[in-house]
Design brief:
Chain B: This is VWA domain-containing protein. Chain B: InterPro entries: UCP010256, Uncharacterised_CoxE, vWFA_dom_sf. Chain B: It comes from Deinococcus metallilatus. The complex is a heterodimer. By secondary structure, chain A is an alpha/beta fold. Helices cover 48% and strands 13% of the residues of chain A. Chain A contains 14 helices and nine strands. The radius of gyration of chain A is 24 Å and the shape is elongated. By secondary structure, chain B is of the alpha/beta class. In chain B, strand 10, helix 13 and strand 11 form a beta-alpha-beta unit. In chain B, helix 1 crosses helix 2 and helix 2 runs antiparallel to helix 3. The chains are: A alpha/beta, B alpha/beta. Chains A and B meet through helix 2, helix 5, helix 9 and strand 9 of A and helix 2, helix 3, helix 8 and helix 11 of B.
C-alpha cells in the first residue's frame, strides 16, 4: 500500500487550490488523515462542504470517489451490481455450445460492475471518498454504511468478503434534511461548517476571482452578509456569492448599482419571494 | 497552555471526557477518550486553539454540543490567572444521578397544588437549582398576571400560567394515548417510498433474483421475480401551543406528543407561546414510564400567543425537513392577537411542502363552537383538516378522522 505523504501545510495546499479553509476545518482534515476516521461535515447548503472533499483529494494527490445520496439509494447502487444482460448472454452462449456454466464462470470479475463504495475500497492508493448529502438517504442505507465504515469490508454473496486494500479518507456531508443516527455520528469526527465571516468571504472572493475590483468584491460580500441576516427561504451560500461576483465581473461592472442589481439578482437569490423581501435591503446597499 | 507529560495527559483526558459526560450529557466514553489522545498526537500541543479544534472534532457529534464543548474546554484547561469562564448553557440534565422521582399522581392533591402556583413553583425551582445554571430566579416565579382574556376562553388556569418554570404534565392516561398514537400512525397513508424492495408483485423486474432462479433452468428466466415500493413511513411535526389560554389542554397535548414520539420513529415536537422551542431532545431524555416533566421552557410555555410569527419561524427552520412524508399537526386554540396575514403565509408555506397539514383545537370540542377566531379563519383555507382535541376520546378518534385525508 503506497500512500502519498500529506502536505505539511494543508492550509497552504488548500489555499493554492483557491479554497480558503478555517482553522477548525484544517485541523479536522488533518485528523481524518492521521486517525483514519471519517469526518461528518454538517452545515447550511453552499458553505463549501463538498468542495472541501474535492480540494482534499487534490491536496493529497489522490482520487476523489463520490457517492451522491438520494432517497431510495440502496446498497446495490452504492456498492456493486452484476451485468445481468451480459450474464444472460453468457448463459445462452454456453447452452448453445453445450458447455456447463459454473457459478465461478457466471460471477466472474468481467460481469461485476463496481459502484463508488466498492471502487473506493479496492484502490491501491487511499482515495478521498465523499459520501455527499448522507441525510437524503434513508435509515436502512445509513445502517449499511455503519458496517462499512467500521469494518472496511463488504460481503458480495457470490465472491465472499472483500477487505479494503487501502483505507479511504472518508468525508460525509449533511444539510440536516434528516436527523442522522447517534451510531453514525459516534463513528465520525464532527465539524459544523458555518457561513464564513465577512473578512473570510472577501478573501474567498479574491482567491477565486483574482481579477475582481476591490470595491465590487467588498460590496458583494457586504450585501451577501446583509442578506443572510434576513429571514430568507433560501439564504445565499458561498457558491452564490462567487456566482454573483462572477456575473458582475462578466458584465464588466466595477461596483454594485441599482441596474447591476436588477440584472444579476437571480444569481444570488433563487426564490421570487426572497427577491421581493430582500429588495429594500439591497437597494439601500447598492450605490446610488 | 503548558505541555503535560504523557501519563498526566491521558489522566487529564479521561477526566475531561468524564466531565463532558457527567455534567453536560455528552455521549462519550473510553473509546472517545482514546481517539482524543490519538488526535492530540497529530496536533501541536503548544497551540491551545489547535488542541481545542481537534478535541472538538473528536468529542462533539452535533451542532448543539459545540458551544457547550468550547465553554467546557476553556473552563477545564484554564490557565491560572485567566479570566473567569463563561456560564455554561445546559445541554441536557445531569446524567450522573437519576432525576428526583415524580410526585405520586393523585389527582386531588395535584388540583390542590394548582390553586397555589407560587408555592409549588418555588419548590420546583429549589429542587432544580443544584443541577442546572439557567433556572429562573424566584422573583419570576410569583403569581401570574390577572387573567383578562376574551370570554370565549373557557380555558382553566394552567399550573404554569404566566410563571415560566418547570413544566409538569402528570396524568395516568399514557396507555390510552399510546393507543391513540398507534391508531394515528397506522391511519396515515402517504403512498409509496422510492426504495425498491423484493416483493411478490411490483413495477420492476428484479434482475438479480430472476437470474439466480434462471441459472437453475439453463438461463431461461421462467420464474420472474419483482421489485416493489414499500409504503412510506410518515414523519410527524407537532407544534404545540403552550400559551396561557390553552390551560390543561396543553398538558394533555404534550403527553400526546410524548406518546406519539414513543410510537413513531420520526417525530419532531416544538412548543410555542411567546417564543418557539424545540422539545424533541427533552422528550427523548424523558423516561417512558414516568410522568412527563420538562425543565423551564422559557417563553415557549405559559405566556401569550404569537401563532403566526412562531409558525413562520418554524416553517423557515424546518423548511428542509418538511416534505411530502411529513404530517404537520398544529395543536392550538387559535386565540391569537397577531397578524393573520403572517399566519396565513406560514401555513401556505407548510401546506405546500407537507404531506398533511392538520389543526387540532381544544375549543372545537365544545358544543356550539364556531371557527370565528381570526387566526382559525385565516388558517382554514390551507388546512387538510381542522379537528377537535378536547380530551383523550378526540385523540383516539384522530386516526379514524384522518383516514383518507392523505
Amino acid at each position: 500500500m503506497t500512500q502519498p505523504p500529506p502536505p505539511s501545510d494543508l492550509r497552504a495546499a488548500f489555499r493554492a487550490r483557491g479554497y480558503v479553509a478555517g482553522d477548525a476545518l484544517v485541523t479536522a482534515l488533518r485528523l481524518v488523515v492521521a486517525l483514519g476516521k471519517p469526518l461528518l461535515l454538517e452545515g447550511p447548503a453552499g458553505v463549501g462542504k463538498t468542495e472541501a472533499a474535492k480540494t482534499l483529494a487534490g491536496a493529497l494527490g489522490t482520487r476523489l470517489i463520490r457517492l451522491q445520496c438520494y432517497e431510495g439509494l440502496d446498497a446495490q447502487a452504492a456498492l456493486y451490481e452484476w451485468n445481468y444482460a451480459r450474464q444472460l448472454l453468457h448463459l445462452r452462449a454456453a447452452e448453445v455450445g453445450g458447455r456447463a456454466v459454473s457459478d465461478a464462470d457466471l460471477y466472474g470479475p468481467q460481469f461485476l460492475m463496481q459502484r463508488p463504495l466498492l471502487e473506493a475500497i479496492r484502490q491501491e492508493v487511499p482515495p478521498v471518498l465523499l459520501i455527499d448529502e448522507v441525510d437524503r438517504a434513508d435509515d436502512a442505507f445509513e445502517a449499511f454504511l455503519l458496517e462499512l465504515l467500521a469494518e472496511w469490508q463488504v460481503t458480495v454473496p457470490e465472491l465472499g468478503t472483500l477487505t479494503a486494500t487501502a483505507r479511504p479518507h472518508v468525508l460525509l456531508t449533511s444539510n440536516r434534511a434528516r436527523e442522522l443516527s447517534d451510531a453514525l455520528r459516534r463513528r465520525c469526527l464532527y465539524l459544523w461548517v458555518d457561513y464564513p465571516t465577512q473578512a473570510q468571504e472577501l478573501e474567498i472572493v479574491r482567491a477565486r476571482l483574482p481579477g475582481i475590483q476591490e470595491t465590487l468584491a467588498a460590496q458583494v460580500t457586504r450585501a451577501v452578509h446583509a442578506l443572510r441576516e434576513l429571514p430568507l427561504g433560501k439564504p445565499p451560500g458561498v457558491a452564490e456569492t462567487l456566482d454573483w461576483a462572477a456575473a458582475l465581473v462578466a458584465l464588466h461592472r466595477d461596483w454594485l448599482d441599482a441596474e447591476a442589481l436588477d440584472l444579476t439578482l437571480g444569481a444570488v437569490l433563487k426564490l421570487h419571494e426572497d427577491q421581493r423581501l430582500a429588495r429594500p435591503t439591497l437597494t439601500r446597499l447598492a450605490a446610488p | 497552555m503548558t505541555v503535560p507529560a504523557p501519563a498526566d495527559l491521558s489522566a487529564r483526558m479521561a477526566a475531561f471526557v468524564a466531565h463532558l459526560r457527567a455534567s453536560h450529557g455528552f455521549r462519550v466514553g473510553p473509546g472517545e477518550a482514546t481517539a482524543a489522545l490519538q488526535a492530540l498526537d497529530a496536533v501541536d500541543l503548544g497551540q491551545p486553539r489547535e488542541v481545542r479544534d481537534a478535541l472538538r472534532a473528536v468529542l462533539t457529534a452535533r451542532r448543539e454540543e459545540v458551544p457547550v464543548f468550547d465553554a467546557a474546554f476553556d473552563t477545564f484547561f484554564r490557565l491560572p490567572g485567566a479570566p473567569p469562564p463563561p456560564r455554561l448553557p445546559p445541554l441536557l440534565p445531569r446524567t450522573d444521578a437519576p432525576l428526583p422521582p415524580p410526585p405520586p399522581a393523585r389527582q386531588g392533591e395535584a388540583d390542590k397544588e394548582r390553586r397555589v402556583p407560587g408555592q409549588s413553583q418555588a419548590e420546583g425551582v429549589k429542587e432544580e437549582t443544584g443541577t442546572s445554571t439557567a433556572r429562573p430566579t424566584p422573583e419570576r416565579e410569583t403569581e401570574g398576571e390577572p387573567e383578562s382574556l376574551p370570554q370565549l376562553l373557557t380555558a382553566r388556569l394552567s399550573p404554569n400560567a404566566g410563571t415560566g418554570g418547570r413544566v409538569d404534565a402528570p396524568g395516568d392516561d399514557l396507555p390510552e394515548l399510546l393507543r391513540a398514537a398507534g391508531t394515528l400512525v397506522r391511519a396515515v397513508e402517504l403512498g409509496r417510498a422510492r426504495r425498491l424492495t423484493p416483493q411478490t408483485r411490483g413495477p420492476r423486474l428484479d434482475a438479480r433474483r430472476t437470474l439466480r432462479a434462471a441459472a437453475r433452468t439453463a438461463g431461461d428466466p421462467i420464474r420472474l421475480r419483482w421489485l416493489g415500493r414499500p409504503r412510506r413511513a410518515p414523519r410527524f411535526l407537532l407544534v404545540l401551543d403552550g400559551s396561557r389560554s390553552m390551560g390543561q389542554s396543553a398538558a394533555l397535548l404534550l403527553r400526546f406528543a410524548f406518546a406519539l414520539h414513543l410510537r413513531a420513529r420520526r417525530v419532531e415536537v416544538y412548543a410555542f407561546s411567546t417564543g418557539l422551542t424545540r422539545l424533541t431532545p427533552l422528550l427523548r431524555a424523558a423516561g417512558p414510564g414516568e410522568a412527563l416533566r420538562l425543565p423551564d421552557l422559557g417563553d415557549a410555555w405559559g405566556g401569550g400567543t404569537r401563532i403566526g410569527e412562531n409558525l413562520l419561524r418554524l416553517a423557515r427552520e424546518e423548511r428542509a425537513r418538511v416534505n411530502r412524508d411529513t404530517v404537520v399537526l398544529i395543536l392550538s386554540d387559535g386565540l391569537d392577537t397577531g397578524d393573520p396575514e403572517v399566519l396565513s403565509r406560514a401555513l401556505r408555506d407548510l401546506a405546500a411542502r407537507a404531506g398533511l397539514l392538520v389543526w387540532l383545537s381544544p375549543l372545537a370540542a365544545l358544543s356550539g363552537y364556531q371557527p370565528i377566531q381570526r387566526a382559525v379563519r385565516a388558517a382554514l383555507p390551507h388546512l387538510d383538516a381542522f379537528l377537535p382535541a378536547g380530551g383523550t376520546g378526540d385523540l383516539a378518534a384522530l386516526g379514524r378522522r384522518l383516514r383518507g385525508k392523505s
